[in-house]
Amino acid sequence: MRGRVPTGDRTDSSQDAPVSTRIIVADVGGTYARLGWIDADGGNAIHDYRRYACAEHPDLASILRDYAAGAPCLGAVVAIAGVLEGDRLINSNLPWPVSVEQTRAGAGLAWVQLINDFEAVANAVPTLSPDTLSPLTPTVVSGASSPALVIGPGTGLGAAVWIEGQPPRVLPTEVGQASLAAGNALELDIVRLLLRNRPYLHNEHVLSGPGLMNLYRCLCELRGATPVHADAGALVAAAASDALARETLETFCGWLGSVVGDLAIIFGARVVYLAGGVTAHIPQFLHDGHFLQRYLNKGVMTEQLERVPVWRVEHGQLGLLGAVAWYRQNRTG
């Protein structure tokens, strides 16, 4: 089908499960949608993994319909950024509006369940294996596994809190839409520049893929330089030789560390997992100390945060794993 971008590896192309027990699991972000299917009556293996470019499709229904044409399914659990208000999804980063019923009908499925994307990622936390985790803090052992803060910058900035129990609970948040707070003189200058053209400044204006470019353009203006990088990929690639690109990434990681520390305090987190598409491309900057210094720079709460480990998650299918976990906990078919 036109517009499909099957650039991801297919986890399993098995077609053995009958259509009546196949369930689509999807992770839909502002840029890409990642889909697979599971056997409702079987294990948690994700079959026939595919990736779609969202901007190349007119709506979510067309993506689900295209996928189901190759692997007919009964229903779908879709992890997607935003807040569900009745039938309508509130989201500022998707290329199209989303209605649950219109999506279900347009996709030709019996049912569609939308869940917050970081609610899904948080549900995947208990399934993470040690080889997918890299420590960002000296402390790697926590006295408790819950509450766990899961946060990550991508097209937007998502976060959720996982709380153990039978069943476990997940508190989704819209931290990306919360006000961005400056923590030093440079960040105050950047905030002033960003507020010239908008009445409200939220975390995603800096702590996201598009926000990274906002940050770069502000630093260029403050340093009297002309921007030369058109997108985040070019900026990251140039950081080894371009001083302003490097400063942008260092500032980004420091600011992210500060916000993560704030949220760990607010939610009483005992462990933090850092995910998101942006973090996968800048591991060396996350590990170079700027993130950690700002994460721990919390006055009297520094000692508390020193006991809360932060792990960078290296796993490309967290949203799908979380959608599977949600299905197992909440639906019977």
Topology (SSEs and partners):
Elements: E1 22-28, E2 32-39, E3 47-53, H1 60-70, E4 75-80, E5 83-85, E6 88-90, H2 100-107, E7 111-116, H3 117-124, E8 133-135, E9 148-153, E10 157-163, E11 169-172, H4 185-194, H5 209-223, H6 232-238, H7 243-267, E12 271-274, H8 283-286, H9 290-296, H10 302-305, E13 310-313, H11 318-330
Parallel strand pairs: 1-4, 4-7, 9-12, 12-13
Antiparallel strand pairs: 1-2, 2-3, 5-6, 8-13, 9-10, 10-11
Helix pairs in contact: 1-2, 3-11, 4-5, 5-7, 7-9
Describe what you observe in this structure.
The chain has helices at 60-70, 100-107, 117-124, 185-194, 209-223, 232-238, 243-267, 283-286, 290-296, 302-305, 318-330; strands at residues 22-28, 32-39, 47-53, 75-80, 83-85, 88-90, 111-116, 133-135, 148-153, 157-163, 169-172, 271-274, 310-313. Helices cover 34% and strands 20% of the residues. It has a 6-stranded mixed beta sheet, sandwiched between helices. Strands 3-2-1-4-7 form a 5-stranded mixed beta sheet, sandwiched between helices. It has 333 residues and is of the alpha/beta class. The two termini are 28 Å apart. Mean pLDDT is 89; it is low at 1-14. The chain contains 11 helices and 13 strands. Strand 1 and strand 2 form a beta hairpin. It has 2 domains: 19-117 and 318-330, Nucleotidyltransferase, domain 5, CATH 3.30.420; 129-313, 3-Layer(aba) Sandwich (Hexokinase, domain 1), CATH 3.40.367.20.
